[in-house]
Specification:
- This protein is of the alpha+beta class.
- It has 6 helices and 6 strands; from the N terminus they run E-H-E-H-E-H-H-E-E-E-H-H.
- The chain has helices at 20-32, 47-59, 70-79, 90-102, 151-162, 177-186; strands spanning 7-10, 39-42, 63-66, 111-114, 129-133, 147-149.
- The chain has a 4-stranded antiparallel sheet. Strands 1-2 form a two-stranded parallel ribbon.
- Strand 1 (7-10), helix 1 (20-32) and strand 2 (39-42) form a beta-alpha-beta unit.
- Helix 5 packs across helix 6 (177-186).
- The protein starts with 6 loop residues before the first strand and ends in a 5-residue tail after the last helix.
């Protein structure tokens, strides 16, 4: 039998949607099925590391800050159109990320997108959002953070950090596997 460690990780990256009661219900449901994790972790435990990795991508020109409206961004991604912010300078992108970190009126207008592709046939690879600004307090970290990684950004990094070898995820993430691998390759992380 495989002698691994079963980790139950809560990907609590969106303070607007996360509540402790949801996590408690998941733990109870697992127990009803006879599943007892060896360890429970939270993506929020890694917010500093994730923030640092985002800064690395920005400094390396592999990500950019974008204030394109949601509907316009969806249209551009669907039709393979580059954002007008895609070629902003590193200094401009870092300054905008700093505004996001403050959670002020300017910061909430921006997100950070990975600079993957504009027209990849797999639309999940078309410059996805990897960080967003949300001034709402987080149920575990309080008001320390105003910027939060998306699941698609955080998951490969935390999987690598925790040494995950097998992950149970729903089928909806299958098209995102190339994006997951891009993050690992670009950040030189363990697969």
């Amino acid at each position: 039998m495989y002698q691994g460690t079963l980790i139950c990780r809560f990907d609590d990256t969106n303070p607007s949607k996360e509540k402790e009661e949801f996590q408690d219900a998941i733990v109870e449901d697992l127990a009803l099925m006879g599943i007892k994790p060896d360890k429970t972790t939270y993506t929020s435990d890694y917010f500093q590391e994730l923030y640092d990795y985002c800064v690395t991508l920005l400094k390396d020109g592999k990500a950019y800050a974008d204030d394109t409206e949601r509907e316009t961004m969806q249209h551009e991604r669907m039709h393979g159109i580059a954002s007008k912010r895609r070629d902003a300078t590193v200094d401009e992108n870092l300054a905008r990320f700093e505004e996001m970190k403050k959670g002020n009126d300017e910061g909430v207008m921006w997100c950070v997108r990975a600079k993957m592709s504009v027209d990849n046939p797999n639309k999940a690879m078309r410059d996805p959002v990897i960080y967003r600004c949300n001034p709402q307090p987080h149920h575990r970290t309080g008001t320390r953070w105003k910027v939060y990684p998306t699941y698609d950004f955080a998951c490969p990094i935390v999987d690598s950090t925790e040494g995950i070898t097998h992950a149970l995820r729903t089928m909806e993430y299958r098209d995102r596997n190339p994006q997951y691998n891009w993050m690992l390759d670009t950040l030189n992380l363990r697969k």
